[in-house]
């Protein structure tokens, strides 16, 4: 028979469940060779692939080939200084879940953009051979993997302090959430239509914005770091943007939908 969980074990299990729900993602640990050392059990909720099927496998077998060089750069940990720097990467991982929530065979899996943010960790490993004992340092990448919600899956009305914008492929505004934009940023929709999104952020945020949108057009989705969005009457509002490339029925990209979160 299966032994019953003790009270402390039940509490730990409940605490872990609450933690994972609050993260809105899953925990992932990669060795510097790319092996999955650990994944939280809820990974199947986001990828449709179970924790057991992924553990011990290599991330390069489950990620898009065009992302492999970026992954290697993140998990390499070449210098001591790099271990103290937060790392962020958008990885396209295989996903067996369809848009309707059904599960398909791994061979039919599509790629889903997962935003992984975390740190490199180090731990000493002791090896004993004959009369010699050697100590080596092993490293791993500990991160939280979070999907970027597709605009079609976001329930209306949008949460407070959130506004929706739509852009052409050259990132010019073709739609803006009228009421919120007017109340918070002072813009009427006609103030923005036909204007480029690149005209409305602080110059010091330009490199980060360009990098984020480069990721968008390469991978289909991105999330910016917080940046300063220019208000009509002067000054800036701090914003984080989640952008998704929208495709037509023949899978040709035709527009970008951005969900913008005001964080002030």
UniProtKB/TrEMBL annotation:
<dbReference type="InterPro" id="IPR013767">
    <property type="entry name" value="PAS_fold"/>
</dbReference>
<feature type="domain" description="PAS">
    <location>
        <begin position="178"/>
        <end position="220"/>
    </location>
</feature>
<dbReference type="Pfam" id="PF08447">
    <property type="entry name" value="PAS_3"/>
</dbReference>
<keyword id="KW-0379">Hydroxylation</keyword>
<dbReference type="InterPro" id="IPR035965">
    <property type="entry name" value="PAS-like_dom_sf"/>
</dbReference>
<dbReference type="GO" id="GO:0000977">
    <property type="term" value="F:RNA polymerase II transcription regulatory region sequence-specific DNA binding"/>
</dbReference>
<dbReference type="GO" id="GO:0000981">
    <property type="term" value="F:DNA-binding transcription factor activity, RNA polymerase II-specific"/>
</dbReference>
<keyword id="KW-0805">Transcription regulation</keyword>
<dbReference type="InterPro" id="IPR013655">
    <property type="entry name" value="PAS_fold_3"/>
</dbReference>
<keyword id="KW-0804">Transcription</keyword>
<keyword id="KW-0539">Nucleus</keyword>
<keyword id="KW-0677">Repeat</keyword>
<protein>
    <recommendedName>
        <fullName>PAS domain-containing protein</fullName>
    </recommendedName>
</protein>
<dbReference type="Pfam" id="PF00989">
    <property type="entry name" value="PAS"/>
</dbReference>
<keyword id="KW-0010">Activator</keyword>
<dbReference type="InterPro" id="IPR000014">
    <property type="entry name" value="PAS"/>
</dbReference>
<keyword id="KW-0238">DNA-binding</keyword>
<dbReference type="GO" id="GO:0010557">
    <property type="term" value="P:positive regulation of macromolecule biosynthetic process"/>
</dbReference>
<feature type="domain" description="PAS">
    <location>
        <begin position="12"/>
        <end position="82"/>
    </location>
</feature>
<dbReference type="GO" id="GO:0005634">
    <property type="term" value="C:nucleus"/>
</dbReference>
<keyword id="KW-0832">Ubl conjugation</keyword>
<dbReference type="GO" id="GO:0071456">
    <property type="term" value="P:cellular response to hypoxia"/>
</dbReference>
């Amino acid at each position: 028979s299966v032994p019953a969980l003790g009270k402390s074990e039940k509490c730990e299990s409940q605490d872990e469940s609450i933690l994972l729900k609050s993260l809105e993602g899953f925990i992932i640990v990669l060795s510097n060779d790319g092996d999955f050392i650990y994944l939280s059990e809820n990974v199947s909720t986001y990828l449709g692939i179970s924790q057991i099927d992924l553990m011990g496998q290599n991330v390069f077998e489950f990620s898009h080939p065009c992302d492999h060089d970026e992954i290697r750069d993140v998990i390499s940990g070449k210098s001591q200084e790099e271990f103290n720097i937060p790392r962020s990467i958008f990885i396209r991982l295989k996903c067996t879940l369809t848009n309707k929530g059904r599960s398909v065979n791994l061979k039919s899996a599509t790629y889903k953009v997962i935003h992984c943010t975390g740190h490199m960790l180090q731990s000493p490993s002791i090896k004993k051979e004959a009369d010699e004992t050697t100590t080596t340092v092993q490293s791993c990448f500990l991160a939280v993997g979070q999907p970027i919600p597709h605009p079609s899956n976001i329930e209306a009305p949008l949460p407070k302090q959130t506004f929706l914008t739509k852009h052409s492929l050259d990132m010019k505004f073709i739609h803006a959430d009228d009421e919120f934009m007017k109340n918070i940023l002072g813009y009427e929709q006609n103030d923005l239509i036909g204007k480029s999104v690149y005209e409305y952020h602080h110059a010091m945020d330009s490199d980060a914005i360009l990098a984020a949108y480069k990721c968008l057009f390469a991978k289909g989705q991105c999330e910016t770091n917080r940046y300063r969005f220019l208000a009509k009457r002067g000054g800036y509002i701090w914003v984080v943007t989640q952008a998704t490339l929208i495709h037509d029925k023949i899978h040709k990209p035709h527009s970008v939908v951005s969900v913008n979160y005001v964080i002030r």
